[in-house]
Each structure stands twice: as C-alpha cells, then as structure tokens.
Amino acid sequence: MNDRGFGKRLAQELPRWQKEGWVSSEGRQAILADVAVRQTKVVWASSLALAGALLLGVGVITWFAAHWNEMNKLMKLIFIFLALTASHVAHGFCQTRSALPKLAQGMAFLSVLFFGAAIMLIGQIYHIDSHFPDGIALWAAGGLLTAWLLGSQPAMVASITLAALWTWTEQFDFRAMNWPLLGYLALAAVPLFHHEWKMATRGWGALFILWMIGWHAQPWIGVVWESHAHIRLFALQVLGIAGCWALAQASEHPFARAVRTDFLLAALVGAFVFTFPDFALRHTKPTGDLAPWLAALISAMAIYTAGIIRLVRTSDLAADRLRIGIALAISFALLLAVEVIVPRSSGLPALFWNAIFLGVLYWISDLGIHHGGRVMVNRAFTGFSIWVLARYFDTFWSLFDRALFFMAGGVLLLAGGGWLERRRRALLRDFEDRGQP
Amino acid sequence: MNLWLKIMLLVVVQITALAAMIADKQWTLNTGTPVVLQTEPVDPRSLFRGDYARLAYPISRLCLDGKTALGGDKDFTRHDTVWVALKPDPDGAKAVSVHHQRSEIAPGLLALRGEVQSLNDYEWDRTTNKSVKQRTLQVRYGIEQYFVQEGTGRQVERPQGGEKVTILAAIDARGKAGILAVLFDGREHYRETLF
Hints:
The structure holds 2 protein chains of 2 kinds. By secondary structure, chain A is mainly alpha-helical. Chain A has 3 domains: 1-68, no CATH class; 71-220; 225-437, no CATH class. Chain A is built from 15 helices and no strands. The radius of gyration of chain A is 27 Å and the shape is globular. The mean pLDDT of chain A is 84. Chain B is of the alpha+beta class. Chain B has 2 helices and 14 strands. Chain B has helices at 3-31, 152-157; strands at 33-38, 40-41, 48-49, 52-56, 61-63, 71-72, 81-87, 94-99, 110-125, 130-140, 145-147, 165-171, 177-184, 187-191. Chain B has a 6-stranded mixed beta sheet, with no helix packed on it. Chain B has a 4-stranded antiparallel beta sheet with strand order 1-12-13-14. The two termini of chain B are 36 Å apart. Residues 44-50 of chain B have low confidence and may be disordered. The chains are: A mainly alpha, B alpha+beta.
C-alpha cells in the first residue's frame, strides 16, 4: 500500500476503532497528525530527489550516447565504471542520508541494469563474442551480489529473472544441462532465508521448477518422445518435488511458506498429467539400463519419505485424517515407482492415478480447511475443476453423439461448477469469520 | 558490515569481473599465434551491417564427406565442442581436420576451438546454383562479430576496386581466437588495442 493510501485508509478506520474503544480521541488525532506530517515530508523529498536523479541520469546518458563514437576505449571504460559506481553510491545516499528507502531500492535495481549494460558494452568495445548464456550468467551473478550486499528484493527479483533466462537459453536453446544453476540457487537461498523476501522466494521456487523441466530438453535423455526415459524422469521429478513440498509444508519458516505454494502446484500438475489414459499408449518400450533409474528412485524416495515423516510428526490432524493422508502418500509414491520401473501397457494405471489424484485433492482441501490455508483450498478446487473438464472431454466425447455431448455435458458442468464455486466461497467466508489469513 | 564497505566491496567485485572479461580477451590477443583468415560475406549484399559486421570464414563450414572432406572425426551433434586443426598460410589458414579432442590434432598444426552451430546434409553449390548432397558442419569460433564505428561500416561495406577483406586473428594456448586486425588487401584497416 502506498503512503497516501495508507493515510486515507487509516482516516476511514480510526472512527470505528475509537467507537470500539481501541483508541482514545487524543490517540486518534495524534496518529492522524503523525501520519500526515511524515507523509508530506516523504512525498516531497521523494519527488524532488526522484526528479533530480532522473534529469541528471537522462542528461548524462544522452550526452555520452551523443559522443560515444568520439570517445576512445579508455574514456568509454571510465564512463561505464563511473555509471556503475554512481548507481551504488546513490543507493547508499538514499538509504542513509536522505532516508528514502523506496528510491534506494530503485537505485539497487538500476545498478543491476547498469551491470548488464556494462557487460554488453565491454563485449562490444572489445569484440567479445563468447557463449551467449555465459554473459547472462555473469549478469545474474552480479545482480545476486547486489541483492545480497545491499539487501534489495528488487535486485534479487531481477537476478532471479536473469537466472531464469540463463537456464532457459542454456537448457532449451543450447540443450546443455545447466548444473551451475544449482550453485546459484544455493547462494541465492542464503539472503532469501535471511531477509524473508516472499516475492523473490517464490521466484526462486519457480526457477528451480524451470530447471527441472529443462532436463526434458536434453538430448541424452532421448530425442524421440517414445523413449520411456522421459516418463521415468518425470515420475522421479514429481516424486522429488512432492517431497520438497512436504518438507516445506512441515516448516513454518517464511522461506518454506513461500516456496511450498509453487511446489504444491508443480506436484499437482505432475500427478494430473498421469491421469490421462492415452498418456500411456505412446510409451510402451522402456529403453536403457534400469539400474541408474532405480538409484535415482531411491534418492527421490528418500527426499519424499523424509518430507512425509516430517509432515506427519508436525501434524495436529486427528488420527483418522492422518491415516488417510499417510495411505494416500504411500499410494502416490507406489504409483510413481511403478511408472519408473514398469512400462505402462494399458489405461489401468491411469484409472488408479485418477483415483489417487481425487484423493490427494480431497486431502489437500481438508488440510487447507483445517489450517485455514486459502491457497491450498483454492489449489484443490481449481485442480478438481480442471480434472472434471479433462475427463469431460476425453470420456463423454466418446460416449455420446456430438449434440447430446454438448447438452448433457454443459448442464453437468454448469451444475457442478456452480456447486463448487458456492462451496469454495462458503469456505473462504468461514476462514474470514475465523480470522484466518 | 557497514553499508559503505558493502558498496565498496560490490564496486570492486563487479569492476574486477568486467576487467577480467577484458583481460581474458587481451591475453588471447597478446599471447596467441597470429594467423590470417580469409573471410566470406555472410550476405552478398551487405558484409557490414551498420556499425556491426558479421563475418564468416571458409573454416566456418567444414565438409565431412566428398572430395573436400576433412580428416578426423565425423560424428558430431549440435553444440558439440570441436577442435579444428589449422595449417597457417599467408593467403589464409586452411582447415586440415576436425576432432572431438584436442589431443588428436597432429603436431605442427594450430588447434582452434569452436562450437557446432548446425549440421547440414545438403550444400548450395554457387557455381551450378544447385543443391548438392554433402554433409557439412557449421562451426562458430567467437570471431564472427566485429563492431566498427558508427558511419564507417558503410565505407567498409563496399570495398573500392574489389578489395579483399581478410582477418588477422590470434589463437591462444586454450584454442580461443580473437581478432587482432581487419585487413584490406593485406593492409591493416582496423587494429585492436587495449585503450
């Protein structure tokens, strides 16, 4: 919320708080006066400083752009290094002397952009034409250092976005596995743990998932989609990410709370993919040695088991609900193990997957209702709606003729969708009444 | 740690990283073996595009079969690292063989490292204007771009009197190449300097 919005909202809320007896009349006046004084000061100072910095920046950049060709290499280098240093120093001034935290964050973000510009300009001046993703990796590393040292979430978000671009080009364009990204993720986790930046942490989780998806673009996994290797790898990834979700769900650390939303979504999407019956038909011949896959299965199973054990230990669910949860977790892991070990030869595994998917959705919504987790309830309801749509198209289509299909299906979806939405809203209202987030 | 110390550390680390980029390039240019490379226009209408030139070399396209086939390995895939054995020549170095490993290059030849950009099974024969079956590798060495001053690219784009553009490249001990100079009919037109 911006400062002006905060003052306005406060002025609207305070009479009610006074009526409830939470604040006195004097307190109300004092709060409003204090907010008004600080608000005016910040707005004026911010506006002037921002306008000044913008004018100066635009002036300097346009002057150098106009004279770029006349400058020798040394002058160009000095300009690049000065611009980079100036953005860092400006952050320091905004943070300390002028007490402009938002502008300071803007300067930290600007310094990440300047570092990227410096890499590109030096590449141009010295005709450096190297492996393209390496330049983005260097840029992302510079952004990470900026975020770490200056404590800036915008710089961290910029760095994670660049790391996503880096891994995208490396894994999807150059088809090379980006192992160094694991080092980046480990280093980035340190400031994220320390500062508890929710947005950047969610980006971190999404980056990790992108890196996992990138495995499927690797030629050594199998260029031909008929290869069972992709299914095996996918099953292992779903198992691993479900384990990561369970570990995060069992923890109350802000970092874990932020990443578990993405991990839950990834695990649900993974399980949903296995519910398709025709998913099996094209993958009948497993290729390659089974031993490395079994070793990978044991590793993924270890992460998953550790997560489930922690989740069970920290759970305050009733014994019967907990038993259902454990049974579902075991079935989920067993089905994934089957996908790794045995090739699919019929739609039968898909039948089990549909049952387990619905069971998991039910259990997640139950867990969400119990803990007041809106995200979990919304995820479960969304998952159920998508599942109904998918089954509607791949089952009803083959059972009825076209006109009847649309009519019967339409009526069913309308009724089902309306009921689901009413139920979801009732649950969210219930959370509000209980005062849960 | 104090904020200003952190800022100082950030400035030092970032500028060191940028300086390392320059140092790496200069190391190649200063320690590398100079070799002349013939150029081929990427686009017959425009060798230099604005202030940035795209360069292609005869050694960018390596034949793997037929009469002009190179020695060495034949099984390559896209984005593989390749080692090309070069025989220096004042009129332009010639590629002798192409390998997966540097150790396979015969003594006395220069080892140049590249990356496979694409593999083609058919080639366009400019003399007959027909597609000919020939397996070729398109290789990138990191010397395919050259930035020239704004406005001067046009002058270089159409060399007067059929001038021939060649490149003086330096190849260092790691097999990395860098452009030392752009030559017009053997005369230096652009020369790389540190500052």
